[in-house]
Amino acid sequence: MTDEDNFAAVVAGAVLRAGDEEIQAEVLNDLVANTGSGTTLEKAITDLRTMERRAGDFGMEIAGSMILPVLIAAASKLWSAYLSRLSEQAGVKLADYTLDQIKAIAKRIWRSDDTVVSVKEFELFVREAAGKEQLPPDQIDRLVKALHSLRMEDELSKI
After folding, report:
1. Looking at the predicted structure, is the pLDDT value of residue 65 above 60?
2. Contact 118, 74 (CB under 8 A)
3. Are 59 and 21 in contact (CB under 8 A)?
4. Closest Cα partner for 63 from 46, 88, 86?
5. How far is CA 78 from the centre of its chain?
6. Which of 37, 55, 66, 110 has its CA at a distance of 20 to 30 angstroms from the CA of residue 150?
7. Domain extents in the chain
């Protein structure tokens, strides 16, 4: 997986757990564990949504109504915005990030210690991606509430 995929997985997982979406968080964990280095998380989610159910597939029963694609798309946009603004500020080519560095970036964003991107931007990305996926307004509101909650910061502190 790419740095973008790793960041998206960290942020999406924390939002899902903060929003009491444990089943979808487990689906994400399973996807991350089974996504090879040559496959993107987005492709793995697309495959999950289109493949036929097989014995042992975790979470397939909810694949049609997943909010996971919304969070992955929004977190990917946040990562892109972060890198774009960081490279503008630094004026240099960025090196590959380690997973620990990616987790630290997510934590800084939610503590408002990072001035490159904000949680408010992520909310806008979530709303945009949710509109494309045609999520019901109440589900969108629950996601937004979760990403602004104290539990979100708590979930990020656990990673």
Report:
1. no
2. no
3. no
4. 46
5. 9
6. 66
7. 3-157
